[in-house]
C-alpha cells in the first residue's frame, strides 16, 4: 500500500481509477466523523454506522471523475449522509418525535454545519487518543469514553488505582499538547476530563 497525501492531485487520480488503497485512505479519514455526524441526527449509533457504510458503498460504485478535489468529496459525503439520515427518520416515522426535540430554527443549514464541525472535532480527538501508548489509551477510553470508574478499571486490568490515575494524567498531558486549542472542547465530549 502506498502512502499519499489525501489532498494531493495524485490521490484524486488513484481514487478516480478505483484503487482500493485510495478509497481505504478516504474511508479512514472521514468514517469516524461521518458516523458521529449521522448519530447526532438519527440518535442511533448502529443505524448511523449503517448509513455511513451505505454512503461509502454508493460512492465507491459511482463515477468519481466528477469530483475535482477532496473538498468536494467531503461535501458530497456529508450531504449524502445527511439526506440518508433524514430519509431514515421519515421512513421509520421517528422524524416527528426527533424533530419535536429540536427547535425549528435548529433544522436549518447552520444546525447541520455545527454538527459537521462537532464531528470533525471528535474525529481529531479520537485520532489523538489513538496515538496514546496502548495501556494509556485503554485506560483513557475506559474512563472517559466508556465512563467506567477507576476502581473497576483497576480490578479488570489487575493494576493499582495509582497507576490508573497516573495513566489518565499522562493521557491528559499528551492530549493537551497534541490538540492545543482543541483540547478545551474535549470536556464537552468526555465528561470529567
Automatic annotation (TrEMBL):
<dbReference type="InterPro" id="IPR014284">
    <property type="entry name" value="RNA_pol_sigma-70_dom"/>
</dbReference>
<keyword id="KW-0731">Sigma factor</keyword>
<protein>
    <submittedName>
        <fullName>RNA polymerase sigma-70 factor</fullName>
    </submittedName>
</protein>
<dbReference type="InterPro" id="IPR013325">
    <property type="entry name" value="RNA_pol_sigma_r2"/>
</dbReference>
<feature type="domain" description="RNA polymerase sigma-70 region 2">
    <location>
        <begin position="26"/>
        <end position="91"/>
    </location>
</feature>
<dbReference type="InterPro" id="IPR036388">
    <property type="entry name" value="WH-like_DNA-bd_sf"/>
</dbReference>
<dbReference type="Pfam" id="PF04542">
    <property type="entry name" value="Sigma70_r2"/>
</dbReference>
<dbReference type="InterPro" id="IPR013324">
    <property type="entry name" value="RNA_pol_sigma_r3/r4-like"/>
</dbReference>
<dbReference type="Pfam" id="PF08281">
    <property type="entry name" value="Sigma70_r4_2"/>
</dbReference>
<keyword id="KW-0804">Transcription</keyword>
<feature type="domain" description="RNA polymerase sigma factor 70 region 4 type 2">
    <location>
        <begin position="125"/>
        <end position="173"/>
    </location>
</feature>
<keyword id="KW-0805">Transcription regulation</keyword>
<dbReference type="InterPro" id="IPR039425">
    <property type="entry name" value="RNA_pol_sigma-70-like"/>
</dbReference>
<comment type="similarity">
    <text>Belongs to the sigma-70 factor family. ECF subfamily.</text>
</comment>
<dbReference type="InterPro" id="IPR014327">
    <property type="entry name" value="RNA_pol_sigma70_bacteroid"/>
</dbReference>
<dbReference type="InterPro" id="IPR007627">
    <property type="entry name" value="RNA_pol_sigma70_r2"/>
</dbReference>
<dbReference type="InterPro" id="IPR013249">
    <property type="entry name" value="RNA_pol_sigma70_r4_t2"/>
</dbReference>
